[in-house]
Write a structure and sequence with these properties.
This protein is α+β, with helices and mostly antiparallel strands. It has 4 helices and 2 strands; from the N terminus they run H-H-E-E-H-H. Helix 1 (2-9) packs across helix 2 and helix 2 packs across helix 4.
């Protein structure tokens, strides 16, 4: 999940270059202050070889699709809530 948060931070303009571990995720957390949840938080899972695997395709596309339509702080907040 941390790599997904790393990837989400760049298009949101929060962190373009990670210089230390968790920098993008911490940037998203800071950017999320005062934000609110965008959309319905739904995570899909499937079982593979006896393990639950989170399907992140829709989650990773959402911030890019919503750029310019929703405030960055709301997109960052949504990413932090779903990433916990």
């Amino acid at each position: 999940m941390s790599r997904l948060l790393d990837a989400a931070s760049a298009p949101l303009g929060v962190c373009w270059l990670r210089t230390y571990e968790s920098e993008p995720a911490m940037g998203l957390e800071a950017a999320a202050r005062g934000g609110s949840l965008v959309g319905e938080p739904g995570m899909e899972y499937e079982e593979r070889d006896g393990r639950l695997v989170m399907l992140t395709g829709e989650l990773s596309e959402s911030p890019i699709e919503l750029l310019g339509r929703e405030p960055v702080r709301d997109l960052a907040y949504t990413g932090r809530v779903l990433g916990r």
